[in-house]
Request: fold
Amino acid sequence: MAEYKHGSMDIRTQEKTFEGFIRMVSWGAAISIGVLIFLALANG
Reply:
């Protein structure tokens, strides 16, 4: 088994995936809040 050196792995792909996930969650939350506000105003 090869020796493992902490911090030597290339994690650019994981970082890019995580960034996309955070962006998607942020957009989803913003859209959900916008829909809820719209519904509250429309039914007001």
In short: The longest helix spans residues 12-43. The chain is about 75% helix and 0% strand.
